[in-house]
Amino acid sequence: MSLTVLEYKTQGNQYYSNNQSLLAIQSYSEAIKLIENKLEEENIVSLYLLYLNRSAAYIQDKDFYCGYEDAKQSLKLKKSENFKGFYRAAICSYHLGFIKQAEEFIKEAINDHQQNVLDYLDLKLLIEKKVQCMKRWRKPIATAKKGLKLLEQIFEEGVLWFEVPAILYQIRNTLRAYFEKTNDKKLMNVNHGDLGLRLHELAVQLNYIYPVEKLLMADPIFEDLILNEMPDVGSLRLQAYEQRLLPRDQRDYDLEDKAGNDLTAYEFSFFINNVLASLVVNSSDEKISLRALRQLHRLTTIDLYRQALGDALSDAINTYIYKNYQKIDLVEKFFSNSGVEILFYDYLEAACQLSAARMIKKITVGHWKKQSLKTIQLVIKQISKKIRYEGIELVEPKPPSKFALELKKLMSFNSADDKVDEKRKNFDLIVNVLTKIYFIFGKQPFIDRSRYDPLFLYVNQMWFEQINNEQDQHNIPFLINGWNSILTQWLKLAYENRRQYFEKINPDLLYDGDDD
């Protein structure tokens, strides 16, 4: 029997007091769900307070991004006298590297409530300390190249480790000045592409010579930089991202082009991404390993950051995680902590699609059973995109051209045949995944998706309505043959016949508004 809102809140408070942050988050989430879905007629608990409490639980779990979102939601619902909302928003902003927002939130908290002013002033001092760290090497390091040389010396000699975050901040600041303000090559004194490569090499060197988790535990600012802070995507990318839901004729495409030229986050991430991915695999501290994985998941699944980081992110994940697909403990940890969502983004969009596909094959029925419905919906959505992008070639790959055949003879390799075989393997993999999802969850996730997706509307009307869910759900050969058949039919369907399924879907809902 479900608890009431008040009971869930009380339960969450108890878990929070016992430092059981994940259980507290679950309890507060259930209470929020009851109110927002209007499942309780009378609410004696304010919604803003539940978001505020859940924010505290996220902070306790060091999940500052979710804590930040909840604190902002709490302030949106109630701003006046919500000093805890401002305070928690300031804490999260500080850890996420949103320094201006942190300064504004803590100012509001101090002005709004004097009772806890000492706590607020302590946080204000922490913010100022991080700002000082960010600025400490501004004058000594005039160019990014000098910053690289300093890092190389520190890594080689094993001294002055406490200066690493300050030097990294200055390199990032130099990149920001180069891309956003002047494009002055004197600021860099090195090609920005070479800078990214050297940052990658330094990260690999750091991962090899020193237990990185010890550095993180010894320096809270370095811990934030690696495990908590979000990439500096720049004002142009933020503006372009904010207009993504506008109708096409109202969007500023020049702005989007300019935003795409800002590679600050991309180049700097070669260091951060490789340290994060290495921590997932190599850290002896399981909590730090899981926090690193959570940060990789966040960077992958939030469009703003994934687009800014590009293949710099997926390459690091591939190098440290996908290529270790035979390590059973790593695979279990990855699949049990949102790794499936990372996989299906990379399978669709990244250069490491083949590695992602190989990793997907390791997902067993047991792993699928542990996934949330949110994850299942994302997987179905990504598979639909894959089918859309690849089209008829999934089932009828184009034969190799004469040039490809001649090249194959000349170079003595099988590139032409491999491409045809890759398409067929993709189709078999898609069928395998959809079969396992149906086997565990039945029709409903696909029916839910059919509100947005013509493919699954077609599947529902042309196949699901003719089968008995209870009888056929666990008939593996039947499901494999069924998915093979229905997907092939869809891919071979004439445009005029396919169009009717598009027309049955509300244009505002089509593909969840995906711009592709």
UniProtKB/TrEMBL annotation:
Keywords: Repeat, TPR repeat. Gene3D superfamilies: Tetratricopeptide repeat domain. It comes from the Eukaryota. GO terms for molecular function: Hsp90 protein binding. This is Uncharacterized protein.
